Amino acid sequence: MHTWFDSWALTLVVFIPAIGAVITMLIPREEEEAIKWTALLSTLATLGATIATMARFDYGKTSTLQFSVTKNWIDVINSHYHVAVDGISLPMIALTSFISLLCVVYSWNHFPEPHNPKAFLALLLVLEVGLNGTFVAQDLILFFVFFEIVLLPMFFMIGVWGGPNREYASIKFFLFTLFGSALMLLSFLALYFKVDVPGVGHTFDMVLLSHAAGAGLVHSTQLIIFGGMFVGFAIKVPMFPFHTWLPDAHTEAPTVGSVLLASIMLKLGAYGFIRIALPILPEAAKSWAPWIGLLSVIGIIYGALGCLAQKDMKRLIAFSSVAHMGFIMLGIATLTTFGINAAIFGMVAHGLITGMLFFIAGSIQHNYGTRELSRLGGLLKSAPKMGWILGFCVMASLGLPGLAGFWGEFPAVLSTFNPGGNLSQPLFRTYMVVAAIGTVLAAGYLLWMLQKVAFGVPKPEFADAHLHDVSSFEWTAWVPILLLIVALGIFPNLIFRVTDDAVACQTAAPFVSKTTTPVSPSLKCPGAPATAQVTAKVTADGSGG
Amino acid sequence: MFFLDKAWLIPLLPALSFVVILLFGKRMPRHGSEVGIFSVGASFVLACGALIRWIMRVQDAKGGTALGALGRSIGHLGAEGGEAQVLPVLHHLTWFQNGGVRLTVGIQIDGLAVLVMFVVTLISLLVHVYSLEYMRGDRRFTYFYAALSLFTASMLLLVVADNTLQLLVGWELVGMCSFMLIGHWWEEKPNSDAAVKAFLTTRTGDIGLLTGVIMTFFIVQRATGVGSFNIVALNSAASNPKVGHTLVLWCAAALLLAIVGKSGQFPLHTWLPDAMAGPTPVSALIHAATMVVAGVYLGARVFPVFFNGFSIGAGGINPMAAIGGITVLIGAALAFVQDDIKKVLAYSTISQLGYMVMALGVGAWTAAVFHLFTHAFFKADLFLGAGSVSHSGSHHSFDMKTDMGGLRKYMPQTYKTFVIGTLALSGVFPLAGFWSKDEIIANAGHNDYKLFLVVGLVGAFMTAAYMARCVYLTFHGEYRGAHAPHAIPHVDEAEHDPIDTEASVEHDAEVHSPHESNRLITTPLWVLSFFAVFAGFLNFPHFDKFEKWFTPHFPPAFADISTLANPAAFNVFLAISSVALALVAFGTVWAYYEGKLPQGLSERNALAGKGKKFLVNKYYLDYLYEKVVVDGIKGPIASGVYWFNQNVIDNVLNYTGKGAQALGRFTYTVIDQKGVDGLVNGLGTLTGESGSEVSKLQTGRLQFYALMLVAAVVIFAGALWIFT
Question: Does B716 contact A at CB distance below 8 Å?
Answer without folding.
Answer: yes
